[in-house]
Amino acid sequence: MSDSEITYTLYVQADPARVWQALTEPAFTRRYWGLSFETDWAVGSTMDWVERGARTSDPEQVVLDCVPHRRLSYTWHTFTPQWAASAGVSEELLAELAQERRTKVTYEIEPVGDTLARLTILHEGFEPGGTLIGLCARSWPMLASSLKTLLETGAPLPEPGRDSAQGHGGYEAYGG
């Protein structure tokens, strides 16, 4: 991790196609993340984030790169009052997040032998020393571990204080 990016690499006992499915299919993302993406995954397409009944849409929230089973990249999140209300985010924190520039997430998926995949998550473009990088640095390890656990065992990690079937979305995932 630097002051403007987070890199996280993990090895998953699953083939790249299964990891891809976990990153892109709503039935998977809801289980380990607590949200789903509504998009066709074509480069340039917008992405709606659907979390706890709140839909976050923005014309700049788009797919940047998409090579199935290998690479996926998109702009990170639009922080709206509706999202904040559904996630339990204070007006003060929302105002801080809204002042920071939009970031970018890239997933690289590589086969490792016949039964493993290496997943590298690069989240970049943060404001150095900003609020968002601190929140994301706390959330990515749990999120990635829950994705790995779901693929390897069939169940995501339980989130403290929540029903594990709901996944790890929302403000709690940010360490709030």
Task: Pick out its properties.
alpha+beta; 6 helices; 34% helix; disordered C terminus; 176 residues; three-stranded antiparallel sheet; globular; five-stranded antiparallel sheet
Q: Termini distance?
A: 20 Å
Beta strand %: 25-35%
Main sheet properties: 5 strands, antiparallel
- Poorly predicted sequence stretches spanning 5 or more consecutive residues: 163-176
Radius of gyration: 15 Å
Q: What is the arithmetic mean of pLDDT?
A: 90
> Main sheet: which strands, in order across?
1-8-7-6-5
The helix fraction, in percent, is 25-40%
Number of helices: 6
Which descriptor suits the 3D outline? Answer: globular
Structural class: alpha+beta
Per DSSP E runs of 2 or more residues, the count of β-strands stands at: 8
Order of helices and strands: EHHEEEEEHHEEHH
Tell me the layout of helices and strands.
Layout: E1 5-12, H1 16-24, H2 26-32, E2 35-38, E3 48-51, E4 54-56, E5 63-67, E6 71-76, H3 81-87, H4 91-99, E7 103-112, E8 116-124, H5 131-153, H6 170-173
Antiparallel strand pairs: 1-8, 2-3, 3-4, 5-6, 6-7, 7-8
What can you see in these coordinates?
The chain has 176 residues and is an alpha+beta fold. It is 34% helix and 28% strand. It contains six helices and eight strands. A five-stranded antiparallel beta sheet has the order 1-8-7-6-5, with helices on one face. It has a three-stranded antiparallel beta sheet with strand order 2-3-4. A hairpin with a 2-residue loop joins strand 3 and strand 4. The longest helix is centred in the last third of the chain and has 23 residues, at 131-153. The radius of gyration is 15 Å and the shape is globular. It starts with a strand and ends with a helix.
